[in-house]
Amino acid sequence: MEKKRIAIIGAGAAGCFAAAELTATAPQAEVHVFERLSRPLAKLLLTGGGRCNLTNSFAEVRSLESVYPRGHRLMRRLFHRFDHRAAMAWFEREGVALVVQDDQCVFPRSQRAQQVADALLAKMRRHGVRLHLGRRLEDIRPAEAGYWLTFAAQSAPLHFDAVVVTTGGSPRASGLDFLSSLGVARVAPVPSLFSVVVDDAELRALSGTVVEEATVRLSGTKLKAEGALLLTHLGLSGPAMLRLSAHAARYLAERDYRAEVAVNWLGAQGEEETLSLLSGLARENAGKQLANVWPSALNRRLWLYLLQSLSLRPTERWSSLSPKTLRRLAARLTNHALPMTGRNPFKEEFVTCGGVALSEINAETLEHKKHPALFFAGEVLDVDAVTGGFNLQAAWTMGAVVAQALGRGV
Ligand SMILES: Cc1cc2nc3c(=O)[nH]c(=O)nc-3n(C[C@H](O)[C@H](O)[C@H](O)COP(=O)(O)OP(=O)(O)OC[C@H]3O[C@@H](n4cnc5c(N)ncnc54)[C@H](O)[C@@H]3O)c2cc1C
Q1: Which residues contact 289 (CB under 8 A, 6 or more apart)?
Q2: 183 with 304, same domain?
Q3: pTM for this predicted structure
């Protein structure tokens, strides 16, 4: 019997994982991976600052919605098939020892993304997966059975019995033009996971300051995120801001990244609690200057900036603060409205919100509902996560689920 031919488009995390898994689920198939770049897994090597935060223990995840702003329902179903435990066991079996950090992010013990890439590529090589580099897909057309694929700078289309599209996120809608002949519905892409520009020169002068536990909200919405906040030369970044940008990706895009960010510099502490903290400091340090006593969650530079923002002199004594001033200070610490005027102009966006619409995809197999034997996995779908290893976990899970489905059908 002739071998079934499977094409995977994109040698990224999802594509390579699907290929590696197909060697077990469909060992009789002929698997080809096509990558437009001259090397595979280029983005994976950049992940986690080159260390690759390949998944998360999920121990501190209260709801999947909090980590997957788009696609949490789909991920809930798919995790029954292949979750973070399965991914961790998979990589350990392939010789990648892992560590779970205190923040629950999972990294290779070697702290090298290259080791993760090598494990995937070694498995693909051992089992005869054919990797074609420098091959950009331009068009997919249905054949009587399967599909004809046309690649750039190649005249004759190639025939495959099944196709898995794993081309990743594309900030430009044109990145998915190769799907045009099939009429696959797409959700317009916008960036997610970005830092923001704040129109406040004094705040930006604090660049490098980290507030370990802050809460950031978008005024007038219910959108908020907690975690470490980093002040940069442009404005706000760090896990809390990136998380907020993910949840608010579309809201902010529609408003051209102009909004009001309300920061609680003390995390989840409310105004009343903060008022009693400040009253306590005032009582115990009555004769001391404001510049010399401040809430322990802040550093001195940030404290001086906050005092200045309320026109309070650092040389003033704590005893001179009226109850009204103490309340203004408590409000500033817990609800500081800052004008967002844009997103980081540098192309640092980590993931794309949007992509192939989930309504068109079979949630059990990731096969297109109207186009049999055409599968999608990874960021090309309208699924994305906050930072912490959740995006790569989605790529492993979806790659595994497609390989399982193809193993049953091929
Ligand atoms: C700097 C950075 C750091 C990150 N760090 C982390 C992290 O630590 N943890 C985490 O979970 N996530 C991280 N992410 C997100 C994560 O890398 C992605 O979510 C993940 O790589 C998505 O996998 P994918 O296979 O869907 O897409 P990709 O990894 O982007 O792979 C898609 C592949 O398809 C190829 N391709 C595209 N179009 C075509 C075409 N027409 N023909 C042929 N090939 C094509 C691309 O060249 C690419 O190689 C990071 C992202 C960035 C940018």
Answers
A1: 314, 315, 316, 317, 318
A2: no
A3: 0.93
